Amino acid sequence: MTTKIYTKTGDTGDTGLFGGGRVAKDHPRVEAYGDVDELNAVLGMARAVELMPRVDEVLVPIQRDLFAIGALLATPHPEKMREQLAKARIDEERIAQLERAIDDCDDELEPLKSFIVPGGTPKAAALHVARTVCRRAERNVVRLRHDEDIPQLVVIYLNRLSDLLFVLARVANRRAGAGEVTW
What tens digit of pLDDT does each residue of 91-126 get? Predict the structure, then answer.
């Protein structure tokens, strides 16, 4: 017997949380992990748009991180949240890895002298979309932190990730030989 994808349990506008409990689908917790899920999907699209191995190999572990962050955000119990954070390996070292990736990209790029208009190649444009979705996810996680005990590392991770996505978009344009449009 196959399991059906639809459960009908959300038909009244609420959803189940990881580890138990139900909340409205417009609850700040659902907004936050929904944005992280959307970011993960946009990164999948960015990987699929054009193959660029050295860029894509940076994105795959980030997508795994985002699954773990989504699970953490969907977990209302502090002890289970700590377990998810440990499982995700989102720690100071992971943040440092993102920073090193940013620095590696910066080494390949001309210094910024003005704002960049998002676009260029399809790969770069998809990475710019991912950056903006990441910023929204970050804002919603910060909003959630006003009322819930969400680890600061999640905010830091998303903040670094949006910076990384910006430089990856620039790198994708550079490697494809596409120029950047400045504002």
Answer: 899 999 999 999 999 999 988 888 988 999 999 999
Residue 11 lies in a domain: no
d(CA 117, CA 144): 30
List, in order, residues 6 or more apart from 7 with CB less than 8 Å away.
Answer: none
Closest CA to 118 of 167, 181, 163: 181
Q: Is 77 contained in some domain? A: yes
Q: Where are the beta strands (DSSP E) in the chain?
A: 14-16, 22-24, 116-117, 181-182
pLDDT tens per residue, range 120-176: 999 999 999 999 999 999 999 999 999 998 989 999 999 999 999 999 999 999 998
Q: What is the CATH number of the domain that holds 41?
A: 1.20.1200.10
Tell me the C-alpha to C-alpha distance, in Å, between residue 36 and each of 11, 65, 83, 96.
23, 10, 19, 20
Tokens read off for 130: 């991912």
Count of structural domains within the chain: 1
Domain of residue 27, residue span:
22-107+117-176
